Amino acid sequence: MSSATVPLLLVLGWVLLSLIVGVMAGIKRKFTLEGYLVSGRGLGLIFLYVLMAGEIYSAYAFLGTGGWAYSYGMPIMYAIGYGALAYSFGYFYARYVWKAGKAFGCVTQADYFQVRYNSKTLAVIVALIGIIFNIPYLQLQLQGLGYIVNVGSLGSISTRAGIIIGMVIMMIYVYTSGLRGISWTNLLQATLMFIVAWAVLFAIPFKQFGGISELFKTLAQTKPDHLILHPPMGIAWYVSTLILSGLGFFMYPQMYPSIYGARDLKTLKRNYVLLPIYSIFMIPVILAGFTVAALGLKLGAPDEAVLKAVEITYPSWVLGIVGAAGFAAAASTASAILLSLAGLLSKNLYTIVKPNASDKELVIASRASVVILGTLAMLLALYTPGRLVSLLLLAYAGMTQMFPAAVFGLFWKRMNKYAAGAGMIAGLITITYLRLVLKTNPLGIHFGLWGVLVNVIVTVVVALVTKPEEEIFQKFKEAVVSL
């Protein structure tokens, strides 16, 4: 048996296991739309935990953080910092989303905004933002998956073939089983990712340098700039990117079905208390990236740093296990994104064309959307690749434009659909101008946060000059905000 055969079999074996588990979770079930998109609102702590952990810690976390650690050094530490802000916000915000889902039957992110502002037009805007800016995030997962399968199989499977195989596998089990299938596969995926991070990746600096302190001593000699924040990613960029990511964390469409899916509020709160434990798995990933940088190795693509660290440290068969874990990281997030976008396309956009669509028809539309959006993301990953962290931050810049409307709408009675919509549009125009025309971050502050600042100003001004919709606010408050 050749040295490439074992890693290849390990990767393909894990892919096949994921497919079987995902399909078996729903193959004999007849899903309602609620059952398909939010698993019937019956997820207990274990399934909810692995579902959210798998959604959050993705190909970006597994490859992108290591790639940026290899390329730039300390600026990647924002990825550790923003989690504290995100989870603190999520602990308080998620309860309102869950209550809205329970009270009004919400199954998508756009549903939440529709019931708060009583506006189908605003729901359409939210759905379009979610789809347009989350497609790059889905593309990110597929690119990472392609890298992983290629390197994990020691080149036996090309990057392009890895992208196609991974997307087809995910489309099959998401199409078949919805959120239930994703939660079942994530039980496997999250477990493998966590074990590999701490049992394999964390040991790399010790095997290469004898310890973490020696790693940083070597890095200080070979690449001293890696240990400081330097232009164009200095203090302003670091802080603004941390804030942007922390605020935008729970604006992603895939977070909402997971929250709706919780069995009760107690389960949801416990989940957010425990999630930070899983988040520390990024530390070994970053250390692996630093290791490759300290060794002075040259890579064809920086996002391959983590897999290169494994390749030079362990026997080839270990690379197969890490490749399987990387596939798990990408697939767990990509599948959740795919389902949430399919929900937006069917529930909030298809119903414009056919307002009286039956529940059964919406399930069919959701499944068709899985295939359409999955194919689109696959083509983008194949023909318009980009750096993983860059794609992630582009997605965050767009998603975070929903933050002012989401938060102000909870407590400020003057907030109405006009203020929410105007703020989002102003923020999107701002980030588009800065990204495509100016092509810079003014004062070193991330362009996405400039968008949020303009968004907040416009939101407040429009809310103050338009008539408040107090009846709509009171109805929402009684069901969602009031204890």
TrEMBL record:
One GO CC term, this protein: plasma membrane
Annotated Gene3D superfamilies: Sodium/glucose cotransporter
GO function term, MF aspect, one: transmembrane transporter activity
Transmembrane helix found in the keyword field: yes
Bilayer-crossing regions: 6-25, 46-70, 76-94, 121-137, 157-175, 187-206, 235-252, 273-297, 317-341, 362-383, 389-411, 418-438, 444-465
Membrane topology: Multi-pass membrane protein
Pfam families: SSF
Subcellular location: Membrane
Stored InterPro entries: Na/Glc_symporter_sf, Na/solute_symporter, Sodium:Solute_Symporter
Record keywords: Membrane, Transmembrane, Transmembrane helix, Transport
Major subcellular location class: membrane
PANTHER family: MONOCARBOXYLIC ACID PERMEASE, SODIUM/PROLINE SYMPORTER-RELATED
Family classification: Belongs to the sodium:solute symporter (SSF) (TC 2.A.21) family.
Name recorded for this polypeptide: Sodium:solute symporter family protein
Phylogenetic lineage: Archaea, Methanobacteriati, Methanobacteriota, Thermococci, Thermococcales
